[in-house]
Every structure is written in structure tokens, then in C-alpha cells.
Amino acid sequence: MKLKFCAAFVFGIVTLSANAQKLDNIKLDSLFQALNEKNLFMGNISISKNGNEIYSNSIGKADVESNKALTKDTKFRIGSTTKIFTSALVLKAVENKKITLNQTINTFFPTIVNSQKITIRNLLNHRSGIHELLSADEFSNGYTEAKSQEEMISIISKFQSDFEPNTKADYSNSNYYLLTLILEKVYKKTYSELLNEQIIKPLRLKNTYFGGKISIQNNECYSYYFSTKWEKDTQGDMSVPLGAGAIVSTTSDLTFFIEKLFEGKIISKESLKTMTQIQDKYGMGIFELPFYDKKGFVHRGQIDSFSSLLSYFPNEKLSIAIITNGAVYDKKKILTAALSNYFNKPNSINFETYQPAQQDLEKIAGTYKNPKNQQEITITINNKRLYANFRNQSLFLLEPVSKDKFENIWEGNKIDFQLPNEMTFEADGEKLKFLKI
């Protein structure tokens, strides 16, 4: 089924001096108006410069059933963007001499494979080799049920290592779950208490906290996926992600937080330098975000049908936070539109989008193997959206281009399915053929 939305907005090149930077709010307003009218996005955006908010917008519903609209102060689950907070807490614990980056984790988790080799530094920059916890059979149908810490450690301890520690990097929520427990052990306090004491209260963040069951009465919102209308998604239990993805916040709180982080108000400038050192595309709870000749940093998150991103450009002192509780249109396209607008770069927005029929997705789903290197890619369906999973690591969303073509906008990977049993995967200019098992 092809959705009949087609419009184009072009953010033209403004004739200004090379160093001039200015936001055209009218063009951004027109973008969000179109997204709202076409049911492509529900969520909030906040853009801040030098600590002052220069743009914000809210579109869509916090609760579709009661027709309650999202507002600037609506609170969302932010998923893995939580990892920026957790990384800051860990580096602050290093400053407080509670732990060191080079100490191994075997004293905390002796049952985890390679724990005598894995350091806290390896957990922070995803170089531990510890397998992705959400790929466990216990979470094959999601994680709506609470799990104790003992249960979670037992699950993680069953995994074999994906690679020798510090030989490469691969994203795994297990790393930040374990960092959460280390923080709780060395401080003898809960993650929520540490978050409040070391970040929320000092910065006076009014709408940020460790999440629980969603409360509309507390100005939180539900998350939704779109079929022929917005459908409410289930709620993940926050005992599973903990410091890997359990924070609730607003776009305004997020931009304020990251500004203060880069100002050295949470951790020292030296710790910040350590946090933002990129190796194999990974920092510590943060990633590099290049945009033309500009250098920024970003983390993004996904939980239930919530999605978030938080970005900061240090030289420009520009921060952008986007959180959605329902989206057909990818948030990176919105981020690109906002950055292009601010930095006076050309950017065309095309709302023509393809939504495959459920039966077509079902024909595609399955596990594919490369006959040469034996690498496997598993394609799964969740809420009428397609996800790819490499070596049972984290899922990444595949955006439909046509019936047989999909892409991951963030990584730039492309997948072309040749039914009934072939697939071509393209990354960094290289194409690999996979056969369906």
C-alpha cells in the first residue's frame, strides 16, 4: 500500500555571509504543520543556542483516546539517550575515586564471560564483547514484565562473548545495564537516587527522572505506531533497561542538560574529553555527528514506539532535542532539516513515503546468511515496521523505499530483497549477497 502523501519543501540557500547563522522559524513551522496534517509524526522539538531556546514545537497527541494534545512540557520516555546520563554518572564516579576506567568487572560480575578481561572503559565505549541482552529468548516478545537484577545477570551470564574485549566495538545495552549496577554497588544507592543527586537537582531539571508506568495525569504520554490510524503500543518495564534506557524527560530539559554537560557543570573538562573521544565510531555514551564542516555529538534512543535524539555542536553551542511518541517519518530527516535551516544549507523534504502491506513484510522476514563469510542477518517485523539484526546484536529500523528496497537512514545501509530467498546488503559502498535460511 502506498500512502498518498506527496509534498516538497525546499530549504533554499539564503544569501548571507559565510559565517551567518540564523533559524527560519516559519519554514520549520511549515515542516511540522505538514507532518501533523499527514499523520507522519507526533512529538516535540527544542533548539537552543548559547543556552537560550530559539525554537520549539509540539505536534500530535499525548493520549489519542482522550484527544489530549502534546505540549512543550509533555514528558516522554527517551530510551537509549539515557546512556549520556549514565556515562556522565560513571565518569563522575571515576572523579570521585569510586572506580577506575581500567579496572575489570570480575569483582562485580564473576559469572559473566571474560569479566576478568573486560574493563569499565570497555563497557562505556561498547568494546566489551558482551552480547545484547534484548536478544535473549526471555525478551522475544518484548519486556513488559519486571525482571530482578539477579534474573538479568543470569540472562547476561548465559551469553558467549561476541568478540575478545577491546578488539572492536559493537553496541550492546548489556554494557549500560551493568554500568548501572556498578554505580549502585559502589555508592550503595539506587540509580534513581544518583541521577537525582548528581544531575537532576544540581541542574534543576524539572521534568527529568527515572521512569515507571506511564502516567497521563503526570503529563506523560503514551507511544503509538501507525497502521491506518495511530495504535497504542505496549509499555516496556523499566527494570529491564535501567541506565541503558529508562529515563523520562522533555526536549527542553535535554537541551539544557547537554549544554551544561559540555560546559563542564556535571563532569570535568578532562572527563568530557574522555567521554567524547571517538574510537571505531563510538564514544562513551555518545557518537560523533558530522554535518558538512561542522562537528557535533549525538545519541539517539528507541523504547516502545518512543524515539529520541539529543545532539550538540560545541563550537556553535547549538543543541537540538527531538522526541517522538509516534512516527512514520524518521527523526533524522527532521534533524537534517533543522541543521540545514540553521546553517543555511540546501535540503529538500519529500513526504512521499511507501508503506508495505503486512503480507509483503511477512514474505521478507527471516534469517539470511552470507555464503562466503557466514555472517547472518535476521529480519523481523514489529508493529508493521521492519528491523534488521546483525549477529543477534541490537535491532535497527529499516525504512521502506519500495516494495523490495529498504534502508537504515542513520547508518546509510541499504537492503534490496530479491524474493523468494535472496537479499543484497550494501554498506560503505560494498555489496554483499545473502541467502534466506
Automatic annotation (TrEMBL):
Keywords, in A-Z order: Signal
InterPro entries per UniProt: AmpC-like, Beta-lactam-related, Beta-lactam/transpept-like, Beta-lactam_class-A_AS
PROSITE patterns linked: BETA_LACTAMASE_A
Signal peptide: 1-20
UniProt-listed Gene3D superfamilies: DD-peptidase/beta-lactamase superfamily
Pfam families assigned: Beta-lactamase
Domain Beta-lactamase-related: 31-330
Protein name listed in UniProt: CubicO group peptidase (Beta-lactamase class C family)
The species this protein was found in: Flavobacterium cutihirudinis
Taxonomy of the source species: Bacteria, Pseudomonadati, Bacteroidota, Flavobacteriia, Flavobacteriales
